[in-house]
Amino acid sequence: MNKLIASNLSMSYSSANHKVEVLNDVSLPIPQGSCIGIIGSSGSGKTTLLQILAGLETPTQGSIFYNDINLSENCLEKFNVMRNELFGYAYQFHYLLDDLTVYENCELVFRISNNKNYGDRTNRILDVLSDLGIADLRDSYPFMLSGGERQRAAIARAIVHRPNFVLMDEPTGNLDVKSGEEIMDLFKELCKEGVSILMVTHDPMLASKADRMLLLKDGLTAASDIRSAWGTDSGVEGE
Ligand SMILES: Nc1ncnc2c1ncn2[C@@H]1O[C@H](COP(=O)(O)OP(=O)(O)OP(=O)(O)O)[C@@H](O)[C@H]1O
Ligand SMILES: [Mg+2]
């Protein structure tokens, strides 16, 4: 069984007169087919953790392993070779390319991996867009989409190439309850197919359906009681 492992990650950002410690000795195994949710207060390092896992940021300390392969060795070289095959990433702020349609944004992932199987990739893109309820918008440009439609397009782009690990940064932040539930059903289907999902979420519905919920606060700990982890009215800090 494939596994992605974050091992003893620490991260700090320094400027001339300021140092921010963001992650402190965070370890996390992500087994194949698992769906893990992460909560934590704003600024606790959730996005930073996802970016390090995908090799988009280099941690100050620690490593990312894919099975026995240390992806963090040789700086980001190994990540750069394997990133597209291993990872799908839905950014917190979408980052769809404005000059490309929804379809072309998804197709870009195949172009990067030099996938020449045009028939298969066309069908795959259309299937995923249909699963996400945005097939009719395939020829629309991002500026023509609502926030929720943009979010679904970004999710489509993250899963269309069937990566092993899908990293989602608040995937349902702009969605209504029904669309959120449909997306979670899709995530569960992906997990059954062996895809692992790690999602940052403040959405109680998503959290209730994840296999594990973790709270990022002075390291990662199990957040078995989501309500107490979130607290009553003060965001995710909880009591
Ligand atoms: N490139 C950077 N340079 C300096 N500081 C940074 C940088 N990126 C993030 N930070 C700081 O690191 C901390 C964690 O940021 P991060 O984006 O990971 O938080 P988050 O948990 O995702 O927050 P939110 O819930 O608001 O999205 C913040 O204090 C942020 O200001
Ligand atoms: Mg964030």
What does this molecule look like?
- There is one protein chain.
- With 239 residues, the protein is of the alpha/beta class.
- The chain has a single domain, classed as P-loop containing nucleotide triphosphate hydrolases (Rossmann fold, 3-Layer(aba) Sandwich), CATH 3.40.50.300.
- It is 35% helix and 26% strand.
- The chain contains 8 helices and 10 strands.
- The strands form 2 sheets. Strands 6-7-8-3-9-10 form a 6-stranded mixed beta sheet, sandwiched between helices. Strands 2-1-4-5 form a 4-stranded antiparallel beta sheet, covered by helices on one side.
- It is globular, with a radius of gyration of 18 Å.
- It binds adenosine-5'-triphosphate and magnesium ion.
- The site of magnesium ion (MG) has 4 residues, from α1.
- Magnesium ion binds next to α1.
